Design the sequence.
């Protein structure tokens, strides 16, 4: 028998992410390019960003070289679009907000976030050179992940929701909005730990 699911977060009602998670408008428009695998993943953190940021859209795919929706967006937002990714001529988040007081709602900076594993994200850039040519915005190097059920190679490897929140915090997004997304992320992780059992979690992830 299928479990009842929340129509908003699409998770089983018993582990719904919606309580306390409200959408706020962000100073930048967010576009999450999400692989099909991440879309189906039970711990998909891009979903939290979409629920917590009003002006966020998710586009699913892997090869975006001829993706009409993305290419149309890049055409319209030419000169004010950045990719959240390490690269040459990197900018800090605050730098992309220069002159935002003169910008209208339709002239906000656009930040593209790759919601994928590092290996998949490199493939996405290889398949779509236009993405790789975008100016890069980077986060502080000392970022540490709160992802307690996924092993990462080291500091700086953080989840999509953590990276997005770090970006938004740097550019002045309302603190309560940022914190509610992190609180929801922590709650989702705790749901998973409870489901697998404390002993299994401690044996595989707590060290």
Sequence:
């Amino acid at each position: 028998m299928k479990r009842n699911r929340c129509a908003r977060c699409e998770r089983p009602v018993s582990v719904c992410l919606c309580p306390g998670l409200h959408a706020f408008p962000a100073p930048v428009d967010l576009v999450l390019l999400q692989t099909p695998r991440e879309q189906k993943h039970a711990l998909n953190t891009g979903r939290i960003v979409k629920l917590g940021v009003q002006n966020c859209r998710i586009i699913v795919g892997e090869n975006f070289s001829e993706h009409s929706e993305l290419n149309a967006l890049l055409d319209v937002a030419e000169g004010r679009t950045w990719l959240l990714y390490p690269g040459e001529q990197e900018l800090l988040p605050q730098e992309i907000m220069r002159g935002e007081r003169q910008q209208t709602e339709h002239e906000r900076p656009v930040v593209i976030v790759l919601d994928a594993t590092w290996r998949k994200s490199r493939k996405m850039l290889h398949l779509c050179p236009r993405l790789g040519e975008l100016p890069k915005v980077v986060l502080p190097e000392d970022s540490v992940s709160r992802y307690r059920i996924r092993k990462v190679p080291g500091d700086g490897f953080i989840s999509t929701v953590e990276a997005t929140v770090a970006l938004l915090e740097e550019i002045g997004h309302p603190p309560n909005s940022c914190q509610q997304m992190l609180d929801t992320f922590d709650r989702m992780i705790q749901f998973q730990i409870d489901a697998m059992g404390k002993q299994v979690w401690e044996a595989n992830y707590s060290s």
